[in-house]
């Protein structure tokens, strides 16, 4: 049986990339809901419908576990998905806890970069409330980074000016840790580093999700001896054209180059 990965678009590749490091011999299904990306700026109920359609599709593929490799989808629907299906469902959330811990004693703040919908959700606010006891967590929506990623626009000469404009009202020296709270954002780590002070830490939740996936499968005695094969789907249709498959491989290569 394969492990399912789901995202609104190509952002979930950053989480799958980490899973391949910890579980290289598993086989995977990656589902990108490209017909409806981006999720982060759409109405909540509309996005919930897309999420459940995708989860139903993955369940019909017979996956042994499903990773919701999308911060927005996790914040909206992961609890309800777990009630519906009997296989493990893992979500991803902004890495606020390790960010706050890393800033303790440094007199520095945490800045969470994410989509508007993730930052509006009660799940995110409850997470921050449970951890941020010294009022050091701030947030900034960056929907343009999702659009750049889905357009395969990674050039720093395009991305960096966008980021500079979005953070122009902030005192960048006050931040000790930047949280990449959307799975699309790790593609732009170099651009983010370009505009923040040199010693700032930049983290995401992808590694923690991959480690948790391995732990759960080991506990269930469901570790397979596969080949690391990946089958790609886009909004329910299997990807067969070579150009698209090559583009996914290039994304994996980009993440290798970034050493993520």
TrEMBL record:
GO terms for molecular function: glutamate racemase activity. The keyword Electron transport does not apply. Keywords: Cell shape, Cell wall biogenesis/degradation, Isomerase, Peptidoglycan synthesis. Its EC number is 5.1.1.3. It catalyses: L-glutamate = D-glutamate. Pathway: Cell wall biogenesis; peptidoglycan biosynthesis. The active site is at 70 (proton donor/acceptor), 182 (proton donor/acceptor). Coiled coil: none annotated. Gene3D superfamilies: 3.40.50.1860. It holds the Pfam family Asp_Glu_race. Substrate binds at residues 7-8, 39-40, 71-72, 183-184. Belongs to the aspartate/glutamate racemases family. Provides the (R)-glutamate required for cell wall biosynthesis. This is Glutamate racemase. It comes from Metabacillus niabensis.
């Amino acid at each position: 049986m394969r492990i399912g990965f789901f995202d609104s678009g190509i952002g979930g590749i950053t989480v799958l990339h980490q899973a391949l490091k910890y579980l290289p011999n598993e086989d995977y299904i990656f589902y990108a809901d490209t017909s409806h990306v981006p999720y982060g700026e759409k109405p909540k109920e509309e996005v919930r419908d897309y999420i459940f359609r995708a989860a139903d599709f993955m369940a019909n593929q017979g996956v042994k576990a499903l990773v919701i490799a999308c911060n927005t989808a996790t914040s909206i629907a992961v609890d309800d998905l777990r009630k519906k299906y009997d296989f493990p469902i893992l979500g991803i959330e902004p890495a606020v806890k390790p960010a706050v811990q890393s800033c303790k004693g440094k007199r520095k703040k945490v800045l969470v970069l994410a989509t508007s919908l993730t930052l509006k959700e009660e799940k995110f606010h409850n997470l921050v409330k449970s951890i941020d006891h010294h009022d050091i967590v701030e947030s900034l929506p960056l929907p343009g980074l999702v659009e750049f990623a889905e357009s395969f626009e990674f050039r720093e000469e395009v991305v960096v000016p966008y980021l500079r404009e979005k953070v122009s009202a902030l005192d960048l020296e006050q931040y000790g840790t930047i949280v990449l709270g959307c799975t699309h954002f790790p593609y732009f780590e170099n651009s983010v580093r370009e505009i923040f002070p040199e010693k700032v830490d930049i983290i995401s939740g992808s590694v923690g999700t991959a480690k948790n996936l391995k732990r759960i499968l080991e506990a269930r005695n469901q570790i397979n001896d596969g080949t690391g094969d990946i089958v790609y789907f886009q909004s329910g249709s299997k990807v067969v054209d070579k150009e698209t498959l090559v583009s996914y491989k290039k994304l994996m290569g980009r993440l290798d180059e970034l050493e993520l």
